[in-house]
Amino acid sequence: MLNEKVPVVIHNTLEKVFESARLSNSKTDIESFYTELIQSPLYLLSDASDPADNEDAEELAGQGAQSISIMQWYIDLEDGDAFPFTPVFTSQQALDAAKTQMEKEGTEYHGQLELEASTVLQMLVNADSDIMLNPNTSLSKAIDENEIRYMLFPSVGLIEHRGQLQIVGEVLNAGLPLLDVLRQMLSSYSKVNAAYLIDSCRLDFQKSCSDHQFYLGLTFDDTDYADELSRIRSEIFNIHRKIELNGWDISIHLVETGDEMSEYLLAQTSPFYNRSLMSRIKSWFS
């Protein structure tokens, strides 16, 4: 791992929007960074004495980082352990600067790879590996495995909610046990029209994601739903006893017009639960 911080000269659009996002920390600039990143090629160091060419690397990427011998660096921790991460570079010039510094420090490397960002991100999230973009430079950022996972969501969104920036994505795993539990629960409520499920985290662009949780978005058939909403909140509180959620909370969001989370849910996601026509008909005569 490099010990000296290396200055980075801006060479491409990705690095330009990256610098803007770091300096402004604004939602617009951060959105531009994520959009540009997922569409860009990225550059990695290889640990192999005979590294795969780019075509072979793209094919092997699905088997994980070790299949194509991507180099990892380590951060020494206070307890004596070392935390591994994958150094990833935003341009050939940024990678060349790192290689020059490695040569000065006597650190070996065996080659390099250029891969599409989507390939790199999928490979590293499968390997549970964190990323450091342009490590030990003036243009660096840590991206943990959760942030990587959000970037791979087809419906990834960046919203302001309760005064905080949140990165969000629709839960698409149809086999997730939580979805079945929620469907069964909601089916007993006559006024719930539709339900959406996303997972989210609070985003500090200079650091990483934190405060992971699910949001259950609900729409109701009429305005007289206060009692049902209260009972649903009580049931949600007890769901942790039925199913393992890895410590994540479930918050309820009432889907209405005018707030960013509701707009995201309605425009970019699909409900996992819709009240059946038979249930609607029964409610008309109850």
TrEMBL record:
Q: Which residues form the signal peptide?
A: none
- The residue ranges of the SseB protein N-terminal domain are 14-149
Q: Which InterPro entries match?
A: SseB_C, SseB_N
State the source organism's domain of life: Bacteria
- Give start and end of each SseB protein C-terminal domain: 177-275
Q: What is this protein called?
A: SseB protein N-terminal domain-containing protein
Give the species this sequence originates from: Shewanella woodyi (strain ATCC 51908 / MS32)
